[in-house]
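Q: What would this chain look like folded?
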Amino acid sequence: MKIHSFKQILLLIGTSALLFSCGTSRQFQRSTVETEGLYGAVENTDSTTIATQPWEELFTDPFLKNLITEGLANNPDMQIAVQRVLEAEAYFTQGKAALLPGVSARASQNYTRNPESVYPNGPRDVTSYQLGLEASWEIDIWGKLRSSKRAAYANLLATDAGQKAVQTRLISTIAMYYYQLAALDAKLEITKQTVANNIDLVETMKVLKESGLVTGAAIVQSEAARYAAEVTLPDLDQQIRETENALSTLLGRVPGPVERGSLSEQEINSTLASGIPAQLLDNRPDVMQAEFQVMQAYELTNNARAYFYPSLTLTASSGFGATELDELLDPSSFAANVIGGLAAPIFQKKANVTRLKVAETKQEAALQNLKSTLLQAGQEVNDALSLYDNSEKKMVLRDSQLEALEKSVEYTQELLSFGSATYTEVLNAQQSLLGAQLSQVNDQIQQLTAVVSLYRALGGGWR
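A: My prediction, written as C-alpha cells:
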C-alpha cells in the first residue's frame, strides 16, 4: 500500500512537472526580428554575398596577406577574445555538470565526554569513528537547471561570436591602415615630383628673365611655389611613421617600418555582392552575438521563473560507523539512508519576484540591443555601397580633370616661353594639377576603403 501511494505521488509530481515546464519555458523566436529594408533603398533578391568569401581570396597583395596572418596570431585583443571563449567553455561545462548528483566523501572522529549527572552509570568518555559517502541530487522537474545549462551554452556561442567580431574588425583595420600607407607613399612621390618640376620651373624663369620675358617677381613666386610643395614632405613623412606605428601595434609588434606594395598594385578580387539583409543574422558576428545574448536572456528568465515552484531533492548517504577503530570496516558497522525532500518557497523576502523582474528587464534590453545592432549593420552596409558608387563616379571625372590639367600645364609653359602667358598662369596650372593628383589618390583609397567597409559590414573575415 505504501509503495503504491509512493508511486502515485511520483506520478503526480512528474505530470505536474511536465505541465508546468511546458508553460514556463519560453524560447526566443527569430521571426520576431524584422530585417526587411535594412539596406535602405538598396533592393537585392540575390543571396550571393562577399561575406562568405575568405579574406585570403579577397585580398590579393602578398604583403597585406602576411600582415593579416601576423595580426591574427599576435594581436593582443585577439588573444583576449580567445581566452574569453575558453572561460565561457569552462562555465558551460560547469552548467552541464549541475544536472548530475553531488558526491562527497567524509571521514571523522568524534570524542564526547558525558556529564556524570546525566550518565551516572556511564559511559563517561565516548569516541566514535565514521567513514562514508554522501550524495545529493536536485531533480530538475521544472527545468531550472536545464535553463541554466542552455543559458551557459548561449553565452558560449555569444562569446565565440564576439571573438569572430574581433577578428573581422582586426582584418578590416589592418587592410585600411595598409591602404592608407600605400596612399601616403603615392602622395609622397607625387609631391616630390612636383617639387622637382618646380625647381625646373625656377630655372626656366631665370632664363626667361634674362630674355626680358618675365620679371624678378616671377622667379620669387616660382621659388615660393616650390617651397610650398616641399614643406609638406615632412608632414607626409610623419603621417607615414605614425601609420606604420599604429599598424605595428595592431600586429602585436614594436613600432617600426612595414613592408608593403604600391597603391597602383592594389586590387580587390571580388564582386560587390551584398546579399539580403536576413543573412546578417548568420554572417555578421556582432549581430550573431546579440542574438545569442537574447537567447541567453530568455533562458535566464525561464530559470528565474522556475524558482517559484517546489524543488525536489534526493539525499543519500552510506558508510561505516563504530566506537572502536578496528571495528570500523566490519560489515556490521555499515549503515545507509535515503531522504527525499520537497521544498516550496512561501516567503522569500521578494527574492524570487526581484530575480524574475530583473531577468525580464534584461531580456527586453537584450532584444532591443539586437534590433539596434541590426539597424547599425544596415546603415554600415548602405554607407559602404553608396561610398563605392560615388568613388567610382569621382574617379571617372577625376581622370578627365587630370587630362585637362596636364594639357593646361603643358600649354601654359609653352605660351610662357613665347611671352603669351604670365608666370601666374603657369603656377596656377601646376598647383591645380598637384591638387588633382592628390585628390585622385584620395579617390582610390576611398574606393578600397568602401570595399573593406562593406566586407566587414556584411560580416566577412571570420570564415
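Residues 85 and 349 are 36 Å apart (CA to CA).
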